Inverse folding.
């Protein structure tokens, strides 16, 4: 008599959940004729955690192109960063503005 030794197999059913990434938003600084460049660089380094070289590059984009991209984030984070920039600028007496837009 031969005996077939097949391993027991078990059918596993996994419910597949589709995980979607949250929509992303661009955080933009807008140029004005009054906010000092040094203030803008310091603000970018502080709020967006950019190094001095990156912050200077963004500041120059703001100055020459009218706006500069500081980062792309999920909506809640983008809104928080926008609020931080606008409040810090206002509290420091500068008219610098920040806005967000869908990526």
């Amino acid at each position: 008599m031969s005996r077939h030794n097949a391993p027991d197999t078990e059918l596993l059913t996994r419910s597949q959940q589709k995980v979607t990434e949250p929509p992303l938003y661009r955080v933009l600084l807008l140029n004005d004729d009054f906010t000092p460049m040094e203030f803008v660089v310091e603000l970018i380094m502080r709020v967006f955690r950019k190094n001095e070289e990156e912050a200077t590059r963004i500041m120059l984009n703001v100055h020459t192109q009218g706006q500069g991209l500081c980062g792309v984030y999920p909506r809640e984070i983008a809104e928080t960063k926008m609020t931080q920039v606008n409040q810090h600028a206002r509290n420091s007496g500068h008219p610098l503005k920040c806005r967000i837009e869908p990526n």
Summary: The longest strand covers residues 67-74. Residues 24-102 form a domain with the Ribosomal Protein L30; Chain: A, fold (CATH 3.30.1390.10). The chain has a mean pLDDT of 91. The longest helix spans residues 75-91.
